[in-house]
Amino acid sequence: MTNIVVALHITVCILLILIVLLQSGKGAEMGVSLGGGAGQTLFGAAGPATILTKATTAIAIIFMLTSLTLAYVSGHQSDSTIMNNNAAAVEQTQPKDTDKKTQ
Is residue 53 part of a domain? Predict the structure, then answer.
């Protein structure tokens, strides 16, 4: 389950970066980056702002949900293991008798 959420989160991160980079700035036109007036006909007159804004909102919501899910899962990991019921084996060694020397 966690692996699926992590894979989805990474995919959404990459998509969010790409969608934000595709959007034009406040003063810039998309036609400037595509070379002249041909950029205006790519999505239509008002198309790219609406499509990219909706895509950014949807991807951002998915990003936030996967982030919250991963934070919850990492905070509530099970502390029990199969080794909880077994006592740790303690190795006892007998001290060497250095005071007694046989001659």
Answer: yes
Tell me the average pLDDT across 12-26. 88
Q: Which phi and psi (to 5°) does residue 97 adopt? A: -85, 100
CA 82 to chain centre: 29
Residue 37's identity, in one-letter code, is: G
Full 3-state SS string of 20-51: HHHCCCCCCCHHHHHCHHHHHHHHCCCHHHHH
Asked, for residue 94, whether it belongs to a domain, the answer is no
Domain membership of residue 13 (yes or no) is yes
Tally the domains of the chain: 1
pTM for this predicted structure: 0.55
